[in-house]
Amino acid sequence: MDKYVRFMAKRTRRLAASEIRELLKLTEGKDIISFAGGLPDPAVFMREELAEIAKEVILTKGDKALQYSPTKGVTPFLETLKEFMRGHGTSVTDDDDIIVTTGAQEGIYLISKTFIDDGDIAITEEPTYLAAIQSMRFFKGKLIGIPVDEKGMRTEELEDLLRTSQIKVKLVYTNSTSQNPSGTTMSLDRRRHLLELASRYDFMIVEDDPYGYFVFEGERPASLKSLDKEGRVLYVSSFSKILAPGLRIGWVAGPKEVIRVIEMGKQNVDLHSSTLSQYIIMEAIKRGIVDQTIEKARALYKIKRDLMIEALEEHMRDLATWNKPIGGMFVMVKLNYDIDTRKLLPLAIQKGVAYVPGAPFHVSSNGSNTMRLNYSYPTPAQIRDGVRRLAEAIREFRAS
Ligand SMILES: *Cc1c(COP(=O)(O)O)cnc(C)c1O
Questions:
Q1: In sequence order, which residues have a C-beta less than 8 Å from that of residue 155 and are 6 or more positions away?
Q2: Ligand 1: does its nearest atom lie under 6 Å from the Cβ of 210?
Q3: DSSP 3-state assignment of 252?
Q4: Closest CA to 363 of 122, 117, 163
Q5: What parts of the chain have a pLDDT lower than 70?
Q6: Which residues pair with 388 in a beta bridge?
Q7: 306 Cα: distance to centroid of ligand 1 (angstroms)
Q8: What are the two backbone dihedrals, phi and then psi, of residue 389, each rounded to the nearest 5 degrees?
Q9: Smallest CA separation from ligand 1 atom 4, residue
Q10: What are the pLDDT digits (tens) for 86-99?
Q11: What local confidence, expressed as pLDDT, does residue 1 receive?
Q12: Which of 113, 317, 357, 368 is the most core-located residue (most Cβ within 10 A)?
């Protein structure tokens, strides 16, 4: 690496390899229960149906499906997507447009590229999605975190900040439903409040919503996008958690003028997202396969969430606190002690369990005593066993 550093662009030099990622890499393939990942359970993948669709699409529509396609997305797929969103409670208006992206991640990256200049201020939740922090920082955005509680981002704190400081906020990034990593969901009141602040203080909102389609209990509050009357929300979502992440398809819906610029920004990144994946997903939506996958994920992850909460109550009641997520794939655990979970990790791995330390999800220096646990991928037995091992590691670490 060092040998080539002098050739690298300055922005590339900032991409430091994460020590934690290196440490977690060592756990792969070993007899270690991992709560560190963020993978869907492969049991939700509808293999037979997708295989059938893929074969049919290639044989009957191959001329188009195997071909280059428009940067913005395959035209009939954009229509299908609009209907899909509407069916799940979020309308796309005549002033809006949609662009298909290579996962939600590319959407977040392209939004960062489109909006953030050197030193521009963006607000995130605290904690927030790590990859969003990385994208916005890559373009030298200055990030300020607003803490979340059980009702999501504390918008009153955001209001205080906007009122008492001179800062000019360009955008607010929120993972509004079943947040990664904290598992919290922003209440309807706070969604309305955030939109009101966007209007009063003139900023845009990026609503990242990969989990809004499968909440376990009741309905999720209306999406920010559906409440937006001023064209301030860029809605980002993905088929990664509701069909299959390997297809690499996400999308951004928002005001036409903005989508047009994002489209130009995408052209020189990857020309367009996989045409074949778009054709497969278009068919999967029409045949109800996506909605069936959503139902499978909802049922399975609810059971696994309950198991993890039960195990936490059994083994860690005196050690930590946590929230009960209404959806998504993660629980965030906060230790009652001033233990840096980065320092605890080697001992946990020795005990046969891995997690992601919470600090990197914070844009401030907070969160060192938190950890993110994934419950979608491990088996029920691993969830029970892993939490027991984790509690053991914490007790031993405290005693040492
Ligand atoms: C999983 C996830 C995504 C989806 O990423 P893809 O690039 O679509 O796979 C986006 N945002 C958050 C918060 C996520 O947890």
A1: 146, 190, 193, 194, 197
A2: yes
A3: strand
A4: 122
A5: 1, 14, 16-17, 19
A6: none
A7: 23
A8: -65, -35
A9: 104
A10: 999 998 999 999 99
A11: 55
A12: 357
